[in-house]
Amino acid sequence: MATTMSQILVVDGDAKVLSAFERLFVGKYNVVTFPESEEALKWLKENQGVAVIVSCANLPGRGGAQFLKASEAIVPLATRIMLTAQSSVDVFKKAVNEAGVFMFLTKPCTPQELTSAVEAALANNARIAAERVLLEKTLTGSVKLMIDMLSLFHPEAFSRTAVMRRQALLIAKRLGMKKTWELEMSVMFSPLGEALLPKEILTRYRAARALSEPQREVLARAPVQTRDLLKNIPQLEKVAQALYLSGRGYDGSGFPEDGPIGKDIPLHSRVLKLLTDLWYASPEDGLDAASFEALNINRKQYDPDLLEVARACLLGEAGPDQDHVLVLCHIRELKPGDVLVDDVLTEGNHELVLSRGHQLSVTTIRRLDQYNHVSGVRQPLRIFRSAPVAEKKLEPASA
User: Fold this and answer.
1) Among 254, 288, 314, where does a domain finish?
2) Do 308 and 160 belong to one domain?
3) How far apart are CA 164 and CA 167, in angstroms?
4) How far apart are CA 153 and CA 249, in angstroms?
5) pTM beyond 0.70
6) Quick check: 325 and 397 in contact, CB under 8 A?
7) Which one-letter DSSP state was computed for residue 88?
8) Looking at residue 343, what DSSP letter applies?
9) In the chain, how many domains are there?
């Protein structure tokens, strides 16, 4: 089976160096070359799968160290190598401290030196990528457990996360986003600020009732509290910032008053604002065309391009795909991965226990069972469940 060759970017003002890399690694690695920094950076923004970046120290344009520093913001996992004819300690210190250089090579280099350096850099890149995947999986599992618990204690606040996550992934696919982890984390944590609010303030805010000045101050601090809670957790710094700016309007309205405007607002923040407002504009049975019409009243608050993308891909969404079946069952028959079709309510006073669209885990099923024994839960429940390979249509099944 064919495999994708590792991609290596080489940027050097010496044409002989560029051709040497191309000849040495032809057929083994995918080598892309540029003679100066600016064109290389433009290319990087469109090709972020680069594993190794090689640059000379005296690079035309912004210089080797500054180029490698700029590239780190675009492709942080790439391994960086600097080629230099200088032996200055200051050059080395600047490259290491500012550009995160993995290795130095002194010109002229032998083919063996170049080959060994590139192979070591590729191995380092593979190790970093594997560690990143492991960390993200571990963090995702921890976040999922946390959200499951919070959704049980604050069902109203977290009722929208499952639906919004599915919608966010559809938008991301339409936009061609290859990495969605931070967007998913932003959606999952988006109700955290509401969960931190006193119930009286949240109730009055949702009902569009007047708030006192102290209540408005508490409400205004919610995004700051969310950011401060998350920003010190490794890998969640960008998520914290996206949530902090998720109330910022595209036209400069909203919170914070001195925040960015238009495209300067992070994309994840713009997606969150749009999907959150769509949720509150939608009827109980889900998103419809009227939901988007409701947003048109304040349409300047939303990225116009993003609004059209959302309209195009979300109005055609019809819930779980054909690989799921509709099942009617009791709590004892629930399985991890099942998705609630309806809200789970208490038997007596019909209080919300868990919201529709929630994907169940071992923890939430166990908690539902405990809740049922204490307070009683209306059953049977309707859920969507992954269908066996042979089944390709929705078929209600009784318990």
Assistant:
1) 314
2) yes
3) 5
4) 30
5) no
6) yes
7) -
8) -
9) 3
